[in-house]
Amino acid sequence: MDVDIATVAILGNAGGALIGFAVAITATRYQDVPGARQYSWLALAGGSWCAVSMAKIIASNPAVIETAYVIARTVSSQIIALWIILVLVYTGRRSWLRPSRLIPLLIVANADVLLLLLGQGRFGQAIAVPVTQNGVTLLAVQRGVAFAATLTISYLPVLLGYGFLIEFLFRSGNIYRRQTAVIGAGTALPMIAALLYDLGYTPHPAIDFTPGVFAVSMLFVGWALFEDESLSVTTLSGDTLVDNLPDPVIALNDDCVIIDYNAAAASALGHPEPNGEHLDNIAPGLSEQIERGEVFSLGDSITYYNPQTTSLTDQFGTERGRLVVLRDVTGQQRRQDRLEALQAATQQFIEAETAEAVAEMAVEFATAVLDQNAAGVFLEEDSVLEPAVISETIENNVEEELLYGSPTDRPESKLWQTYETGEIQTVSLEQDGLDPLDNALMLPLGSHGVMAITAYGSTFATEDRRYAAILAQTTQVALDQVERERELRQSRSSVKRRREQIEFFNGILRHSLHNAMVVIRGRAEHIRDDVPSPKQRHLDSISDWCGTLTEMSETIRDINNTVTASEAERLDTVDLNATLRRSIESLRVEYDSVSVSCELDGEYSVQANELLEEVLLSILRNAVDHNNADTPQVTVSVQQAGDWLQVRIADDGPGMSDELKTKVFERGLSPDQTADGFGLYFVSVMMELYGGTLWFEDNRPTGTVAVLELQQAVTSSKAGDDPQSGDTETAATEAQTKSHNR
């Protein structure tokens, strides 16, 4: 009996030591698993505990047994400390691993060891004495009276660890419940064995089976941590994977192997049981589509999916797999495709040159993009709706007379009613026997006609009606554009023809006027010798008027060229200083009693042409003609206003009323109000062609100030000074396109 119990205990501890050491070595291969390092140390301590316990049973010397007992209690206390550390790491309480919290726990766990090492007398004694029980005599260690207290204290960290495990087991949303339960149940075995031994329920006081049981329990813990995949990654999706979701849901591990799925996923993948299969083996390229996170279709299906991936992490934040939800976005994708197709086609619609081309694109779009079986565009011509473009299905199944609508021949026609009311109508075609056409959607195209779209089924879906209405509006806009372009071409042709006629007659008029002036001047000079000296002033007047009319003819030619020229041809860089000086000199020649002062504090150039001198002279004449002073005073100055130059011509005349300031540029103003009704109207026309503005202000104390605002030109010298300035031509172009309003 003695040999049998001792042999069993020795073999059990030997086996436990081997198991503990083997498990500790094996755990080193799983260092990426949370808690693996602490588990490895725990298994190593368990193996050492078994080895020391085996030595304690084999030894026969009381001193050796007492020493082995102290070592065994020390190792078992460290197992308690390592156990609490493993639980803290496993349950995600790494914040507890601070010295302020960890040291008190370690002291409590080693309470009995401290008593053995520091205690004296009967409080801390550990004496090996022979004990006979059940007919077996072995040396057993007896403890002092304080042993019960320190033993109870040592159990406190163990109970605390189990409390953490139980809390973690029932924590809301915990995805490791099964794994936690296995770990808790496995470690409970040595706990029970230790309690039984400490309470005296043992075959002999010298034999403790707790170390061997602890080593075996490490096998359960290791299997739960490292080997049983169903207790780790799969359970990550257990709380979120709902089998009856309409969208496919797939749980993948790190190697992209399917570990769980729902019924919708099995159907989408076309595999009844994809569990354990690599994702790309079932659906090649699917993993790449999921990684990109973009909408895709699976296989030959027209169903579109939008992948949404959620990382499956453990309590330490380590990714252990992925949960993939394939949201069915077929409807959304179809809407997006339709809108993109309609947007892309809009430019083609607008660029169409004929109504027939627009109608053809509309029918093609309705059948190809809107997925309708047939369509037709019916355009109005002389109060009759006629088919411009129709699908082959309509042409083959609808009688020809039904394809026309008019208020006289077919007023009951749905086509004509839609055109007349301008309202969208849904028309049933079943009663007309137009199989396979079930119904039609009639959409008005404004004054152009009607668009009809037919479909299978009894009704049109709301979405189809909406897109059909958008298509009809786009078609109407395109037809409006075609009509405007046609009218514009006709208008351009008419304007061109009128301009050519005006240029022709103006040319004849100028040529005839020039020839007439030459003849008149020649005849006047021919008779000069026969005219008495007192009468020759009349010949001088005739000769001067001939010159004036000839110059006016040339001016009218320049005006006509300016008006008919393009903006790029109309403007040039004009030296404002030189032009002002010539205009002022001409004014002094025309008027004997006039005082003109000119203030120019810089070199100025503007965007205009050779008629600017005549424009300035007209304003100067107006300032003198409406001045009742004996010697009219006129002051000319130039001011900078940003990119513009203001030519200010001030006089000391009687001034101008506010009403006249707004009407002075009208062509119909009488000559007695402007001295020469054509003069200021000519100025306003030219300023508009220059892209400038003209207005009048009051002069103080009396008189009027005419302000001509012109676009400043960038000369070559200024462009050289300013590296950011462009050349003159560029400045001219910008000036032409700039809108400047006062």
From TrEMBL:
The keyword RNA-binding does not apply. The keyword Kinase applies. Keywords: Kinase, Membrane, Transferase, Transmembrane, Transmembrane helix. It comes from the Archaea. One of its GO terms (cellular component) is plasma membrane. Residues 713-742 are annotated as: Disordered. Residues 508-714 form the Histidine kinase domain. Residues 725-742 have a biased composition (Polar residues). This is PAS domain-containing protein. It comes from Haloarcula marismortui ATCC 33800.
